[in-house]
Amino acid sequence: MSLRFEGVSMAYTPGAPVLTDIDLEIPPGEFVTVVGASGSGKSTLLSLVAGLTRPTKGRITLGGQAVEGPGPDRGMAFQSPSLYPWRTVERNVAFGLETRGISRQARRERVAWLLDEVGLTEHAGKLPGSLSGGQQQRVSIARALARSPEVLLLDEPFGALDVQTKEDMQLFIRQIWRDLGTTVVMVTHDVEEAVFLGRRVLVLASDPGRVARDLRVEPFGEGLEVKRTAAFLAVRAQVEDLVRREHRAHLAAAHA
Amino acid sequence: MVSVDSPPVERAASPAPRVKLLKTEVSRRTAWILRVSSVAVPLVVWWAVSGSGIVPDRFLPAPPEVWAAFAEMAASGDLQNDLLASLGRIGAGFALAVLISVPLGFLMGTVGWAQPLFEPIIGILRYLPASAFIPLLIIWLGIGETSKIALLVLGVVFFNTLMTADVVRQVPRRLLDVSATLGAGRARVAARVVFPHSLPGILDALRVNAAVAYNLVVVAELIAATSGLGYRITRAQRFLQTDKIFAILIVIGLIGLTIDVTLRVLRARVGRWSA
């Protein structure tokens, strides 16, 4: 099911739009990364798709159906894992499955499969507080995947992790994407990450937020070492320049 | 001329003063010694002063006399009856206050209209001292159980409502957002997310307010009652039995401590995840 933005604008306060006239079509199974300077409305874009925020103009559709509010067809994970600290890892993952008439047995199998997929089977009975940051984020992603969403929305999911863990998680999320074929829309402030993961990189402009560039990125290769290749570095530099330009414009606008 | 070559530098007094941290810790052993002294020292001072004869026995009875008074009241069964009467009132009044304040506070912490509707009036009411209501409550409800239970409710309900509302409001926004994206509606989020997240904090509020209820019941019984620990104190006063008053005060203190420790243990069990 494809995800469409049709003339979407969003303003928290009237007259000060965060996003204006976004028109986008994201076909099913695509991995889209979104970068942009602060104030470009990256997070708002995801929030709109999640249905946590309503557009002031235009509409968002998923498979032709207008998005009217949050729903399990769009899973989401944030920079802070936001797990239920009183629930064990497996019961965190099961949360979304408890809301429908799913048999206990089916739920248990699904949770076991998800924990295996994210590599946390041995931590099933632990409380989130005893896990590392990267592990918590895996739980958060497994929880978002529990109801087999059409779209997985990731809002700077690895922003708070150390560099090594972050790279592990990049390989991890790509594997998840390959295995499940879910559409992924990921917001990040890390251009390298955006270019490494995204098959399509959206660069947002600020004041108000809009799509400045919609770049298609050919896969460079599998491992982390592609980050050192000339081809990768060239694309990365191109995107960085775009983001930097928007950042400067944003600062200038703020001082004007 | 001001030199522009070097930035202004504050010359440090030499040698640099040693900075001490505000928070300090003691060893477990020292902590235990301090804990024991915390109770033992006042007890020893009491014993010494009452034994020295500086203060007349009538004003400050010695520990053995207090113990004897305690044993006498316990043997006659008065103490047990009074204790049960007081605890029964606390149980009824506190339970009623909790049944009103927790749902109300929950509402104020979650639903947008409840906060502006209830906060101002509760904000005013909670500053009215509950004990000042005793005369009014006696006029309205008589000197029976109802007025005493009503006093406890008045003394607890407003504070507990506002404290519950504060705790409920502290549930992180992200957690609510995530729950919504997982398909959980309002009722489900309230029961499965907001309530468990708030429970340790609600128990903290209950612990604070249980002490208030416990204080108020004795006050209520001092003024108009025919049973209860407060009543027993006023009776002892009439006959100048300070030994009995001391014994009852110690009982009140120990029971209060028991209630506190019980709630603390419960809180620790429920809130293991938040530790």
What does this structure look like?
- The complex is a heterodimer of chains A (256) and B (275).
- By secondary structure, chain A is of the alpha/beta class.
- Chain A folds into two domains: 3-73 and 152-255, Rossmann fold, CATH 3.40.50; 83-148, no CATH class.
- Chain A contains seven helices and ten strands.
- Chain A has helices at 42-50, 89-94, 104-117, 133-145, 163-180, 191-197, 230-255; strands at 3-13, 16-26, 31-36, 57-62, 65-66, 74-77, 151-155, 183-187, 200-205, 210-216.
- In chain A, the strands form two sheets. Chain A has a six-stranded mixed sheet with strand order 6-7-8-3-9-10, with helices on both faces.
- Chain B has ten helices and no strands.
- In chain B, 74% of the residues lie in helices and 0% in strands.
- With 275 residues, chain B is mostly helical.
- The longest helix of chain B has 38 residues, at 186-223.
- Chain B has a single domain (65-274), classed as MetI-like (MetI-like fold, Orthogonal Bundle).
What is the strand and helix layout of this fold?
The complex is a heterodimer of chains A (256) and B (275).
Chain A: E1 3-13, E2 16-26, E3 31-36, H1 42-50, E4 57-62, E5 65-66, E6 74-77, H2 89-94, H3 104-117, H4 133-145, E7 151-155, H5 163-180, E8 183-187, H6 191-197, E9 200-205, E10 210-216, H7 230-255
Parallel strand pairs in A: 3-8, 3-9, 6-7, 7-8
Antiparallel strand pairs in A: 1-2, 1-4, 4-5, 9-10
Helix pairs in contact in A: 6-7
Chain B: H1 28-52, H2 63-76, H3 78-110, H4 114-125, H5 134-141, H6 145-169, H7 173-181, H8 186-223, H9 229-238, H10 242-270
Helix pairs in contact in B: 2-10, 3-4, 3-6, 3-8, 3-9, 4-6, 5-6, 6-8, 7-8, 8-9, 8-10, 9-10
Which descriptors apply to this entry?
heterodimer; A: 256 residues; alpha/beta; Rossmann fold; 2 domains; 6-stranded mixed sheet; 4-stranded antiparallel sheet; 7 helices; 10 strands; globular; B: 275 residues; mainly alpha; MetI-like fold; 10 helices
